[in-house]
Amino acid sequence: MASIEHVSPLAPKAFPDLPEIAGARFASVEAGVKYAGRMDVMLAHLAPGTVVTGVFTKSATRSAAVLDCQDKIGDDSDLGAAILVNAGNANAFTGKNGVHSTKAVTNAVAETLGLPETRVFSSSTGVIGEPLPHDRITAKLSDLSERLSADGMAGAAEAIRTTDTFAKGSTRTISTSNGDVKIAGIAKGSGMIAPDMATMLVYIFTDAKIDRAPLQAMLSELNERTFNSITVDSDTSTSDTLLLAATGQSGVDVTNDADFKACLHAVMLDLAHQVVRDGEGATKFVEVSVTGAATEADARTHALAIANSPLVKTAIAGEDPNWGRIVMAIGKSGAAADRDLLTIRFGDILVAEAGWVSPDYTEDAGAAYMQNASIQITVDLGLGESSSTVWTCDLTHGYITINADYRS
Amino acid sequence: MASIEHVSPLAPKAFPDLPEIAGARFASVEAGVKYAGRMDVMLAHLAPGTVVTGVFTKSATRSAAVLDCQDKIGDDSDLGAAILVNAGNANAFTGKNGVHSTKAVTNAVAETLGLPETRVFSSSTGVIGEPLPHDRITAKLSDLSERLSADGMAGAAEAIRTTDTFAKGSTRTISTSNGDVKIAGIAKGSGMIAPDMATMLVYIFTDAKIDRAPLQAMLSELNERTFNSITVDSDTSTSDTLLLAATGQSGVDVTNDADFKACLHAVMLDLAHQVVRDGEGATKFVEVSVTGAATEADARTHALAIANSPLVKTAIAGEDPNWGRIVMAIGKSGAAADRDLLTIRFGDILVAEAGWVSPDYTEDAGAAYMQNASIQITVDLGLGESSSTVWTCDLTHGYITINADYRS
């Protein structure tokens, strides 16, 4: 496995100070699933009254834990619940044994905590194709349950890391006339796990009061504009999981609260951006916005074509203001575009318009802009009113080194 | 522009000995469009009786020359014809000036050779967004027309290179009871053209006798299994062009001749493979076959998902038998797949079956196989009878170096 010597140059300055969420307790432990000398299993316990919602990878080769979560996520129960996550082994492409391991873990958690097995969710991230040594996890459950504490979320953010170069957390507090509502979340992603792809795992907790169905609808909608709008290398994990649990213990109903939705969006976007900022080998954070599209789907198709283009991503790595490659990406995307109506901007710099380079544009101005650590690319198609924004990183020698030079 | 110091390690041993095609004459010249000290313009003259067929990039931001060719390609005329190609400037994303430059070149060729302008086809490859200095090309036309010769095809293969590391040619001869029929073709592609994407240009000539419509149908069908089945980095040029001209001068009618079709297929596949073998930074030639699919479209979607996956391509570069990334690529492709029915092979080595690694597979065997310069990946989906094969190369530090480290 690749040794991670450096923290990403795009990492936030510090891990945030996560608040306690009433009704949620956390513990982490060294179980030795694969790694030695570090925490690799986290347990979250959620009090009765908690609703749990989630979104999952659309991969056709989903892992056993993802399939198990999907089976359980529609349950309207408000009994207590638990989330168990291990790092080091993804329990993916492990056939019937994988299903057995997931059941062994979730059943043991249910028994230890006195919960129905249908309220225990699990995730696994790490190598694929190797049997999950689930006994190493279940052997630690009584230890974990004894050490559950309200201030354990930061430790959980550490335990779910694989080769992430930094732990990822985010929080917002909403002040309402009925009192404060807190949201806090952790994530892992974009670290390479030999011999596997990057996996994104996200767990968000709030003390808001809200029914499962409207919370699920809100989560699914916001997911499209956050985690489903980031791309590192266009590859999709078999294990991507986002769980959102609302304990209700603030007593503040947020069912139609726009502030709550805005703050949940902010936490999700912050965590999604942190995943991109930890992209393998990333040296640039890139926002791609496409405006003036006939439909939102067209805008998104163009934005992802630009964000996933190896030629665009290598140009950004080389600090090359190569707008020709953006034209190419738009052309290949398959969505509607008229070459002679395109307007392209780098930040505020007008680069190209009306089918040709702008007369005021200079390569020097473009090259100077490309030296920033955060790059904004905006393309107006001149065809309609729809738009879409996605986020990505550059494609560097670091990506090749992490993914090719080290043997699994 | 990147300096190309080395010939691709995947290059054929030598350029083939291309036969003369009766009715086709060629000339090349140093016009100084961008490069100095090398040929950069080629002219092909085709005798009366020649039919011309073609296929072109599907990019929505096609260059002026491509749009002009597409306007002309359906013409059933059998007057003489000409093809003019320049390297160094793609005349793409150049607005109305680009259309003017293409017309200036094709009109001048028509006048010089005494042809209708509708029978003059042109291609441009090189930098985009810069005006084409078409006067440098038209100034050389009388020189070119005087030097047209039947043995000039190899020189033409040199003249259309941009940063290709080797010239590309292929030929086959079909023996029939009515005499021999010859096919010979040249191509350029996958060299990087700062600040532009790789462009693929292919010109094939035959002395076969056949009407335009059946030849066009044959070309379009074979194109799907050859040039449309290769991928270097999933990016699509604005200028990709394939022209096939049949002079008829062998007198042998090949309208329903299966041998002719097979040999045309062989020439096209050989040239397509040479383009992949010259892929930027390529060190491995990779064939991806997907069998057992419910539909051919599904098989192709899976095969391209594997061939375009940066994680699969970097694993191959690292000689890592990382079958987990192949499972990932199948999962993300969006086409039908059942994780537990997948069979994966590296060459003849059974790697995974029935949703898990094969009990007989060893990492040592996989790693030894990955040291080959040519890699075969076969995935059987176990769902149906359809299949698809595509070809690609690995993703290496060389690709990043060519595309990121050198400024345009």
UniProtKB/TrEMBL annotation, chains A, B:
Record-level GO BP terms: L-arginine biosynthetic process; ornithine biosynthetic process
GO molecular function: L-glutamate N-acetyltransferase activity; L-glutamate N-acetyltransferase activity, acting on acetyl-L-ornithine as donor
Sequence positions that bind substrate: 162, 188, 199, 280, 403, 408
Primary subcellular site in the record, as a coarse category: cytoplasm
Pfam families from the UniProt entry: ArgJ
Active site: 199
Superkingdom to which the source organism belongs: Bacteria
Annotated localization: Cytoplasm
Name of this chain's protein: Arginine biosynthesis bifunctional protein ArgJ
Biological source species: Shimia haliotis
